[in-house]
Structure formats: structure tokens, C-alpha cells
């Protein structure tokens, strides 16, 4: 099925539903939140009389300006009665709301296709799910408003790390052109997305202790790193490092470590993340470690000759 045909079918599901639930992923970032917000307002704007709710939580502080009403887990009644759409989430275990059954749900995503879904638009072809939704809007000629524009822009800006990630293409900039042409206040949006001085200071201190082991630069942050700053911390760490692979061990409130791994060119870090129980994209992936005892093993595994090619 061609992408335009998938867009049409996806929207037919929306048209046929009275209630719609949108689901974000655990440790949510700007793409899952921004896409969910944009899709919610897109549906309300283009299909009147729909009841649309987002089910999720723990969103980054600097992106909460997107949220127009409190977001939490939806009620059991609404959950059972609604069409379920999962956004920017590759697998069932990554969905914040654990009640979701993929085979009864739609998925709009930009990760490699995994599992069985009722209907899916996915695949690792776009740098952000927000770009995919922008493509849908352009293709179906849907109406947009400020909420849609800001949600999509946040999704694209954060998941491309300001256009530095793999898969950024002319289409990515065409998507941003579309948003700007339709009234996106870009300068004001960037101002609203800013981190606080306290958050910036935390990041600055954390990235000072970077170390290098062959093709890997890595940091260990033993203070709890909240989801508010995990993504911008990693982005700044990558920016100031010049090895091919970047690895950040970030302590979570649960006591274990969120391991974020990035590469700059042709090193497929998703293979590393999968080996250690995680997953993700070619240049951007992650996994969890219960402690720091395996750092040497992880560094050695990354530096194997077969992965350097």
C-alpha cells in the first residue's frame, strides 16, 4: 500500500470513531508529546464532535506549555470505548499505558516495524513521527491551527536534535517550511522550549566528566537525571564530543541507569542497544543497566572490530 493510501485509511479509522485515545511512550520526549498534541487538535479541528484524550505522563518540564489540559491515564470506561492510537512508540513494552493491546490499536511511528498492529504507518524512514504526521496533513489537505503547528515543530526539532540526526532530508525542511508558511511563530516557540538556568547548569556539570575509550566517548552521571533534561543533556554531550560513538549512563530515580547511545555517521548503535536489551534507531538508541558493573564489557563490545566497519 502506498503512503498516501495509508494516510487515507488511517483517517478513515478516525472518521468512524466517536471517542479516540492517543498513547505516548515511557520516558516521553518531544516527538511523542508533540505528535500526540498535534494529532489531538488536528482531529478536533477537522472532525467535529470527536472526543479525543491523551493517555500518558512524565512529560519534560520545558515542553509542558504544549499541554492545554492535564494528561494522565484515561479512565477504564473511555479506554474501552475508544479507538486507540499509539504515537512514536516502537513496541508494546514502550507504551506508557500498559493496558494497550497492539493488535487492537493503530500506530503512527518512525521506528522499525515490530509486532502486530490493527493498522500501522511506520518504519525507520523519517527522523521524527512529527514529520510523518506533517506529511499526512499535507497529503490529505487537513486544516491546522497553533496547537497543531507548535506540536509538530516541537516533535521535529527535538527528535532531530535541531536537524542533526540521521534521516534528515529535504522532506524534513519542507515539513518545517509548511509549518512556518501556516503561521508557526518559530522564534517564540524556541523561547518557550528553553531550559532553566538550573537545568542548564546540571547539564554543564554532567558533561565535564567525559572519557574516551577507542571510538567511544562516554559519561556517567550518578545524580538522578529526570526525564525533563535527559534528552537535552545527551544532545549537548554529543555536540561537544568528536568520537564516532557516544554513550551516556544516566542514573534514574529507580536506581538503575538509562543508557543513551548515539553515533555520528555509519555506526549502527541499534545493534548495541538490542544486544543489551534495548533498541531504537541506527544512530540513536538506548537500553537499561541495573548498575555500572558492565561498563567495561559494554565498551569492549562496542569497540569490536566487526562494529567499527
Notes on the structure:
The protein contains 12 helices and 11 strands. The chain has helices at residues 3-16, 30-46, 76-81, 129-140, 146-159, 170-181, 186-192, 197-206, 230-239, 269-275, 295-302, 305-308, and strands at 19-23, 51-55, 83-87, 105-108, 119-121, 211-213, 216-221, 245-251, 257-263, 279-280, 284-289. It has a 6-stranded mixed β-sheet, with helices on both faces. β1 (19-23), α2 (30-46) and β2 form a beta-alpha-beta unit. α4 (129-140) packs antiparallel against α5 (146-159), α4 (129-140) packs across α6 (170-181) and α5 (146-159) packs antiparallel against α6. It starts with a helix and ends with a helix. Pfam families: DHHA1. This is DHHA1 domain-containing protein.
Amino acid at each position: 500500500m502506498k503512503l498516501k493510501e495509508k494516510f487515507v485509511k488511517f483517517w478513515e479509522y478516525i472518521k468512524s470513531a466517536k471517542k479516540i485515545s492517543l498513547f505516548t511512550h515511557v520516558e516521553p520526549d518531544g516527538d511523542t508529546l508533540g505528535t500526540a498534541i498535534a494529532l489531538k487538535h488536528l482531529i478536533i479541528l477537522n472532525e467535529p464532535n470527536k472526543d479525543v484524550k491523551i493517555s500518558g505522563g512524565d512529560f519534560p518540564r520545558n515542553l509542558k506549555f504544549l499541554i492545554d489540559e492535564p494528561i494522565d491515564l484515561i479512565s477504564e470506561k473511555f479506554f474501552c470505548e475508544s479507538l486507540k492510537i499509539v504515537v512514536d512508540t516502537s513496541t508494546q513494552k514502550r507504551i506508557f499505558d500498559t493496558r494497550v493491546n497492539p493488535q487492537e490499536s493503530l500506530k503512527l511511528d518512525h521506528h522499525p516495524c515490530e509486532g502486530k498492529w490493527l493498522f500501522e504507518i511506520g518504519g525507520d524512514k523519517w527522523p521524527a513521527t512529527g514529520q510523518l504526521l506533517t506529511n499526512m496533513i499535507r497529503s490529505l489537505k487537513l486544516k491546522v491551527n497553533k496547537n497543531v503547528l507548535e506540536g509538530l515543530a516541537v516533535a521535529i526539532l527535538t527528535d532531530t536534535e535541531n536537524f542533526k540526526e540521521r534521516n534528515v532530508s529535504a522532506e524534513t525542511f519542507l515539513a518545517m517550511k509548511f509549518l512556518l508558511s501556516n503561521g508557526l511563530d518559530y522564534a517564540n516557540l524556541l523561547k518557550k522550549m528553553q531550559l532553566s538556568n538550573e537545568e542548564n547548569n546540571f547539564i554543564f556539570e554532567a558533561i565535564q566528566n567525559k572519557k574516551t575509550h577507542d571510538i567511544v566517548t562516554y559519561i556517567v552521571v550518578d545524580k538522578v537525571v529526570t526525564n525533563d533534561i535527559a534528552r537535552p543533556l545527551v544532545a549537548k554531550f554529543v555536540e561537544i564530543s568528536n568520537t564516532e560513538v557516544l554513550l551516556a549512563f544516566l542514573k534514574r530515580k529507580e536506581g538503575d541507569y538509562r543508557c543513551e547511545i548515539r553515533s555520528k555517521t555509519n555506526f549502527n548503535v541499534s545493534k548495541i542497544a538490542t544486544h543489551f536489551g534495548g533498541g531504537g534507531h541506527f544512530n540513536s538508541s538506548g537500553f537499561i543497566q541495573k548498575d555500572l558493573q558492565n561498563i567495561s564489557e559494554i565498551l569492549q563490545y562496542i569497540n569490536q572490530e566487526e562494529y567499527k566497519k
